[in-house]
Amino acid sequence: MKNILFYSVLAVMASGIAAFTTATSGYEPGATASDFKLKNVDGNMVSLADYKSAKGFIITFTCNHCPYAKSYEKRLIAIDRKYKAKGYPVIAIMPNDTMMCPDDSPTEMVKYAREKGFTFPYLFDATQEVAKAYGATKTPHVYVLHKEGDKLVVKYVGAIDDNYEDASKVTKKYLENAMNELMDGREITVKTSKAIGCTIKWTSK
Question: Which tens digits make up the pLDDT trace of 3-19?
């Protein structure tokens, strides 16, 4: 009985370590990000290579059901409108296991994007491989990429700002500050911040 209990504890610890590794590995500022190809809510496949004239991207892992993600919808649309015109479009990616989160299913994503008036692609990471490669852990979780030759260099990772509850009370606009410094050719002052949001729901398969 003791042996069974011992090995059960080991199994739980091992699975916890694996989950932690999945959640914490990924891109940091200075890393080179890989491109991807995911299905958009309009049915088309989208990759970063499609954006020939883009100077970079604001990759945002988000979803339908999370209250944190919901609170940032209008801000994300405003950010897209502001920076897309300057060469940095928002690319939103939904990474959750839809068996665990049926409200995030592709059908619901289509409805949600239309209802909220998303001005950016809303892609489904069905295998969760993109989220794992980036190291995303929350919704929302933001990555700023900048084109340098044929590379996509990560410049900022973390939160959009410091107040998900009330946009009028934001004191630190992490993402916008990073974008403005990047476009001005200056060193980004704050390259990382803690992403605050719902934990990404990983598939158990």
Answer: 433 333 333 333 333 33
Say if CB 75 and CB 86 are below 8 A apart: no
* Helix 73-84, helix 174-183: angle, nearest 10: 0
Q: Regarding the domain delimited by 2-199, which CATH topology (the fold level of the hierarchy) does it fall under?
A: Glutaredoxin (3.40.30)
Q: Where are the domains of the chain?
A: 2-199
pLDDT tens readout for residues 40-96: 999 999 999 999 999 999 999 999 999 999 999 999 999 999 999 999 999 999 999
Task: State phi, psi for 10 to the nearest 5 degrees.
Answer: -60, -40
CA 48 centroid distance within chain: 14
The residue to which tokens 């939103």 are assigned? 92
For residues 35 and 145, give the distance between their C-alpha atoms in angstroms, rounded to a whole number: 11
Q: What whole-number distance in Å separates Cα of residue 79 and Cα of residue 73?
A: 10
